[in-house]
Design brief:
Elements (H helix, E strand, L loop, with lengths): L2 H19 L6 H16 L1 E5 L2 E5 L5 E11 L4 E12 L1 H5 L5 E14 L7 H14 L2 E2 L1 E13 L2 E13 L2 E2 L4 E9 L2 E9 L6 E9 L3 E9 L5 E10 L2 H7 L13 E10 L2 E11 L2 E12 L2 E14 H7 L15 H4 L3 E13 L2 E13 L2 E11 L2 E12 L2 E14 H5 L11 E12 L2 H7 L1 E14 L3 H10 L12 E14 L2 E10 L4 E9 L4 E9 L6 E9 L4 E4 L7 H4 L2 H5 L2
Parallel strand pairs: 5-7, 18-19
Antiparallel strand pairs: 1-3, 2-3, 3-4, 4-5, 6-9, 7-8, 8-10, 10-11, 11-12, 12-13, 13-14, 14-15, 15-16, 16-17, 17-18, 19-20, 20-21, 21-22, 22-23, 23-24, 24-25, 25-26, 26-27, 27-28, 28-29, 29-30, 30-31
């Protein structure tokens, strides 16, 4: 035996001898009493029942309790564990005292009483943190394979599973420090927390990482009284709707957003969180400003003002779960789902995209109150002109009252056509005004109730796909020739104007005309909003009125038929040739 091994063996014999000199009674009753007293002193748990107690000295002294039931003194926290292991301190054993520095809870099942109606993490964590704060000292607690049931009046509010946590030992007014992992609502999450247990200003931090969330906060908590938490926060998520769903928040408006990140100096007060110097990143587009999230009367309210360089408004609108409007759909509108949370959000950007259109100097807003939804463009530049719009929906006895206003002013249509293919055959400078007002419980009822007006005007441009001037000249020479290949070419115009009134779900085109140097084109008729069909007639005439070509515009709005009304201007002899010409 080497000298070193001999020294170790001698020390071990001495230690065992010292322990043997103590009057250790390893009977079950003695072990239970010592273990229970130590656990209650160092953890704050009151042990209600145990099935078996064991003590072992090698390789390290420890007490093991099986099938343990426990409760905190005020009953906020209660539970049971398959096994509780208390790791004894060696030196106190030499004097016959039981003391330990670590408690292992193996497969514990813990119930925490939370306020009735609570649905927030802050409300759920407050009771447990308050219990730990009452302890003057606390051993290291290791939780493995645990689960926590949050109950309000006996009903389960939420369940946290697969808990593996280490709560560090502390004494006096040292902060509570824990780290580990858990599974909440099917999402494994790693976290760490440093929480001050004494009044005054003290450091606080929180870190959480999962597939849905990366969060880091390092700041301070000040007191006494109602604490104020402040400091820098960094939060990011690959999908804000999924993150909100993870927290139990099903938001119709939240579904408009995708990947999101927020960094801000936050200040947390009771029922209020302020985000100062906030940087918000939405799908790679940065917005700067300030926001506030508050709770009042059981409703959460988000308010803020943000500004940035660019924003894709079209992408946001495309993600909204807007139902397909169909007159056959008799499902009532659900405005309540869109107004479940209060919102007052103002956003301005240098440039924005909206369904292909490019806008500049954009100011927009969303204003939501219970039973009221409003959004709009306060201002936006567009292709040398400007765009404005407003949508207001409010709850009414007959369903939902809708008010829609939109306007274009001095927009260069040719420039817009480069981004909007549907305008590819039109150029010029245009103005437009739309005002609609209706109320209904379903989309069909809403269409049938609409009243309002539409005004259109354009000047100094062209319309592609037809050459009205050439068509008139050909018609003057030979009406038959006018029917050949007339859907080609371009028609320059000096002005376009159209005015329409809407009532009872019918749009009546009261005045509409387009004028050029050698023609005048007018159109009148109606459009039925419910079936979305057109029934209109038009007349193309020379300036002196000598030649006139009538047209009909009928059919579905998406693909109406625009044809020359041949029988109205052809002679009987020429009419006989029309079928042959039209089939060539």
């Amino acid at each position: 035996m080497t000298r070193r091994a001999a020294i170790i063996a001698f020390s071990l014999v001495v230690a065992i001898g010292l322990l043997g000199m103590q009057s250790w009674d390893v009977a079950l009753g003695r072990v239970q009493r010592g273990a229970i007293q130590a656990i209650e002193e160092r953890t704050g748990f009151v042990v209600k029942a145990i099935e078996r107690a064991e003590i072992a000295f090698l390789p390290l002294p420890r007490i093991s309790l099986s099938q343990v039931s426990f409760i905190q003194r005020d009953g906020v926290l209660a539970g049971e564990a398959v096994r509780v292991k208390a790791h004894l301190r060696l030196l106190p054993l030499f004097s016959g005292r039981i003391s330990f520095d670590r408690v292992d809870l193996v497969a514990p099942r813990i119930d925490i009483a939370v306020p009735a109606g609570s649905d927030g993490i802050t409300e759920w964590l407050s009771p447990a943190l308050a219990e730990f704060e009452q302890l003057q000292r606390q051993s290291k607690i290791v939780v493995s394979a645990g689960s926590v049931f949050l109950r309000a009046d006996g009903a389960i509010q939420s369940v946290v599973r697969d808990i593996d946590l280490v709560i560090d030992e502390r004494s006096g007014n040292q902060p509570l420090a824990l780290s580990g992992s858990l599974n909440w609502r099917g999402v494994p999450t790693d976290l760490s927390l440093l929480w001050p247990m004494a009044g005054g200003s003290a450091k606080a931090s929180l870190s959480a990482t999962s597939s849905l969330l990366k969060l880091r906060f390092d700041g301070t908590r000040s007191g006494p009284g109602e604490p104020v938490i402040s400091g820098p926060l960094v939060l990011s998520t690959p999908s804000l709707p999924k993150l909100l769903g993870w927290f139990g928040e099903e938001s119709r408006l939240g579904s408009a957003l995708g990947a999101a990140a927020v960094s801000a100096d936050i200040q947390v007060k009771p029922r209020e969180v302020s985000f100062n110097s906030a940087v918000v990143n939405l799908d790679g587009e940065r917005l700067d400003g300030a926001m506030k999230l508050a709770e009042s009367g059981g409703r959460f309210a988000l308010s803020g003002t943000l500004a940035g360089a660019t924003l894709d408004l079209g992408r946001i609108l495309d993600r909204l779960p807007v139902p397909v409007f169909d007159v056959a759909d008799t499902v009532p509108f659900d405005l309540g789902a869109w107004t479940a949370r209060d919102i007052d959000l103002r956003i301005s950007v240098d440039a924005a995209r909206l369904k292909g259109a490019r806008l500049n100097d954009v100011a927009t807003y969303v204003l939501v109150r219970k039973g009221r939804f409003e959004t709009g463009l306060v201002r936006a530049g567009a292709y040398g002109g400007s765009v404005k719009g407003r949508l207001l929906a409010t709850a009414a006895p007959a369903g939902i009252d809708i008010k829609l206003q939109a306007g274009l002013d001095k927009v260069n249509i040719g420039q817009a056509a480069s981004d909007l293919p549907q305008l590819g055959r039109l150029s010029g400078t245009g103005n437009a005004q739309l005002v609609l007002d209706g109320v209904g419980n379903t989309f069909d009822e809403l269409l049938g109730s609409f009243t309002g007006r539409i005004n259109l005007a354009a000047r100094q441009g062209e319309i592609g796909g037809v050459a009205f001037g050439e068509l008139l000249r050909r018609a003057e020479r030979s009406p038959i020739q006018a029917l050949r290949d007339w859907r080609q070419g371009k028609t320059p115009y000096e002005s376009i104007s159209a005015n329409a009134g809407i009532a009872g779900g019918i749009l009546a085109l009261t005045e509409a005309q387009m004028t050029g140097q050698n023609y005048r084109f007018s159109i009148a008729g109606s459009a039925a909003l419910r079936p979305r069909t057109l029934d209109m007639t038009a007349l193309l005439a020379s300036p002196n009125g000598a030649t006139k070509l009538p047209f009909v515009l009928k059919g579905p709005v998406d693909a109406p038929a625009f044809e020359i009304e041949t029988e109205a201007f052809l002679s009987p002899a020429g009419a006989a040739l029309v079928p042959t010409l039209l089939t060539r």
